[in-house]
Amino acid sequence: MATKIYLGSDHNGFHLKEKIFAYLQKRGYDVEDVGDKELDPDDDFPQFAYAAAVKILGSEHNDARAILLCGSGQGMCMAANRIHGIRAAVAWDAQEAKLSRNDNDSNVLCLPARLLQDQDHQWQNVVDTWLNTDFAAAARYIRRNRQLDELA
């Protein structure tokens, strides 16, 4: 079964989200857009972060994940991380994406649309690296993730 990917963005990430949606579909991923469905300059990111988090937690897929976009990626990350069971990380390059998966088992990738909007090769590299990096599952990483869950 292909990895299920939920995509969400506010107005700042809307155009890049559309590109990522097409990119992932072309590569065989099961992609679902959780909003915004049309460009709305007055929308707010928390609702889309929440929608994606709820979808991940309720998914029947073992490895459901989300990619969220806003101007800096930070707002989406903060909003998503408020939901118990979500481990969201902002990444702007492949190294950050890899570490967020390998060490922290991130299930949400938050992208800074302002930085990556016109950098097709860069965001593709970040997305591909994040999707193709497995969690190392070292004892210390498992212990730290458990500690994060206890904080929520």
From TrEMBL:
<dbReference type="InterPro" id="IPR036569">
    <property type="entry name" value="RpiB_LacA_LacB_sf"/>
</dbReference>
<feature type="binding site">
    <location>
        <position position="144"/>
    </location>
    <ligand>
        <name>D-ribulose 5-phosphate</name>
    </ligand>
</feature>
<feature type="binding site">
    <location>
        <position position="114"/>
    </location>
    <ligand>
        <name>D-ribulose 5-phosphate</name>
    </ligand>
</feature>
<dbReference type="GO" id="GO:0019316">
    <property type="term" value="P:D-allose catabolic process"/>
</dbReference>
<feature type="binding site">
    <location>
        <position position="104"/>
    </location>
    <ligand>
        <name>D-ribulose 5-phosphate</name>
    </ligand>
</feature>
<dbReference type="GO" id="GO:0004751">
    <property type="term" value="F:ribose-5-phosphate isomerase activity"/>
</dbReference>
<feature type="binding site">
    <location>
        <begin position="10"/>
        <end position="11"/>
    </location>
    <ligand>
        <name>D-ribulose 5-phosphate</name>
    </ligand>
</feature>
<dbReference type="GO" id="GO:0009052">
    <property type="term" value="P:pentose-phosphate shunt, non-oxidative branch"/>
</dbReference>
<feature type="binding site">
    <location>
        <position position="140"/>
    </location>
    <ligand>
        <name>D-ribulose 5-phosphate</name>
    </ligand>
</feature>
<dbReference type="Pfam" id="PF02502">
    <property type="entry name" value="LacAB_rpiB"/>
</dbReference>
<dbReference type="InterPro" id="IPR003500">
    <property type="entry name" value="RpiB_LacA_LacB"/>
</dbReference>
<comment type="similarity">
    <text>Belongs to the LacAB/RpiB family.</text>
</comment>
<feature type="binding site">
    <location>
        <begin position="71"/>
        <end position="75"/>
    </location>
    <ligand>
        <name>D-ribulose 5-phosphate</name>
    </ligand>
</feature>
<keyword id="KW-0413">Isomerase</keyword>
<protein>
    <submittedName>
        <fullName>RpiB/LacA/LacB family sugar-phosphate isomerase</fullName>
    </submittedName>
</protein>
